[in-house]
Amino acid sequence: MIHKYKYIILGGGMAGANAATEIRQHDSEGTLLIITKEADKPYHRPPLSKEFWTQADYPKESIYYSINNDKAIDFLMETTVKKINADQLTIEVDNGEVYQYDKLLYALGGAPKWIEGPESDRVFALRTLEDYRGIRQLTDRSKHAIIVGGGWVGAELAAGLKMNDMDVTLVFSNNTLNEKRLPLALAEKFHQRFVDFGVNLINNAKADSYRVVGDKVCLKLEDGRELTTDILILGLGLQPNVDLAKAAGLEVGNGVIANKYLQTSNENIYAAGDVVSYPDLIIGRNRFEHEDQAEHSGQTAGRNMVGMEEVYTHSAPLSYTDVIDISIEGVGEMSRNRDDEIIEEVGNGYIVYYLNQGKPSGILTYNVKVDMDKARDILANPPETPGELHGMLKPL
Ligand SMILES: Cc1cc2nc3c(=O)[nH]c(=O)nc-3n(C[C@H](O)[C@H](O)[C@H](O)COP(=O)(O)OP(=O)(O)OC[C@H]3O[C@@H](n4cnc5c(N)ncnc54)[C@H](O)[C@@H]3O)c2cc1C
Predict the structure, then answer these.
(1) pLDDT tier at 337 (50, 70, 90 boundaries)?
(2) Which keywords does this Swiss-Prot/TrEMBL entry list (predicted)?
(3) What pLDDT does 70 receive?
(4) Ligand 1 centroid vs 244 CA: distance in angstroms?
(5) Which of 14, 249, 256, 352 meets the CB 3.0–4.6 Å disulfide criterion with 364?
(6) The domain spanning residue 337 has which CATH number?
């Protein structure tokens, strides 16, 4: 038997939840199914590496999307989508059941990159609530954690675990923490703050593999060194989940390729969130792994699945981190042409303009709040010369 739905959303993450909200907003009747691998209904992921560790009284249940309570939405939980038959407008899940759609959303996010080593309940990547629960359970009865990868999530978790009385070692491949994203002078400040906070930093080090010995994990670095710990957390970045799209014949590059309506190369299938590569109106075709992008692209895709033909205009999505006493926000591309950047000191903070061929391609703030919509305007309508950027953004 084939189960029929007007809308099917693959992936119960942040993009999927936002698409479902918009579909219900504009079509209260059409049958809607969300399929997700997870045991938890859609929730907001950013607190998993922040408030869950830094605020003892944080209301954890507040992370769930309210759409979860909509009785008119069906969920298939702990279910893995195995195949999309784009010609027949059907999908197949792991128990062999087949579901038919009129419009499909591909919002499968990405899979954490891994290194060689056996499956173990002491080795994690922090992607899901389930991962958080596993890490929390172990940290409550362990002393030492190693985190590999100095990106936002790795750094946030390192600080968070430290605040929870763990000894924390953060292993990362560059010389200075976050030097790829921040101008060197700010990366050095960021790095030093972690040193002062008591996080043990191991720089210029790449993880090779790990082995589990009793209740310890031994991490082997590429230079041959071995580090032993109670918990290993890998923050090595994400691989977009494109395999099902590729097998279904959709156009795939660095992500699932979509047009300005977030429609894939198949007219009945839309894509949103971390997995979609789309033509950003300000910075060109791109794929982002940020909350702002997941939520807005999900919303536009949802409206277009209902038939609204709306161009995705939420360009240069915002990324942010809040760690120790540092707050960073950015729009656009933060790493291109890093020798070419303007740093403005504003009070106790900084505004950074990243330049690409003389034009700003990204704007980042460090411990200062500015109007990020104005920052987007600057990227969309840059001044004639980079010198004119000075003073364009004022602290709020
Ligand atoms: C700990 C953490 C902290 C973060 N902090 C920030 C932050 O501070 N700022 C920021 O901008 N962004 C942050 N992010 C990134 C942000 O959460 C992501 O950009 C966002 O979740 C992407 O949404 P998505 O719906 O595309 O993917 P996801 O939310 O990952 O959802 C994808 C869903 O698809 C499911 N799935 C995958 N394959 C299958 C399959 N075959 N069958 C069924 N289901 C499947 C997955 O299980 C998952 O539920 C953070 C992410 C994490 C993990």
Answers:
(1) low
(2) FAD, Flavoprotein, Oxidoreductase
(3) 92
(4) 17
(5) 352
(6) 3.30.390.30
Residue 395 counted as domain residue: no
| CA–CA dist 161, 151 (Å, integer) | 15
In which domain, by residue range, is 137 found? 114-234
CATH number at residue 153: 3.50.50.60
For residue 386, pLDDT beyond 60: yes
Residues 294 and 344 in one domain: no
State if residue 233 touches ligand 1 by the CB under 6 angstroms criterion.
no
* Structural domains in the chain (count): 3
Report the DSSP pairing between strands 276-280 and 255-257. Answer: parallel
Half-sphere exposure of 176 (CA within 13 A, CB side): 15
User: Any residues with CB less than 8 A from the CB of 347 and at least 6 apart, and which?
Assistant: 368, 395
- Per-residue pLDDT of 293-305, as tens digits, reads 999 999 999 999 9
**Residue 230 and residue 118 share a domain:** yes
What is the distance in angstroms between the CA of the first residue and the CA of the last residue of the chain? 58
Q: Where are the alpha helices (DSSP H) in 236-289?
A: 243-247
Atom of ligand 1 nearest to the CA of 272: 26
In percent, the amount of the chain with pLDDT more than 90 equals 94
Ligand 1 centroid to residue 238 C-alpha, Å: 10
19 confidence band (pLDDT: 50, 70, 90): very high
pLDDT score of 358: 85
Per-residue model confidence (pLDDT) at position 338: 63
Domain boundary among 214, 234, 254: 234
Handedness of CA 143, 149, 154, 158 (dihedral sign): positive
| Pocket probe mutation, ligand 1, options 8, 10, 14, 35, max atoms within 8 Å of Cβ | 14
Structural domain contains residue 332: yes
Q: How confident is the model at residue 253 (pLDDT cuts 50, 70, 90)?
A: very high
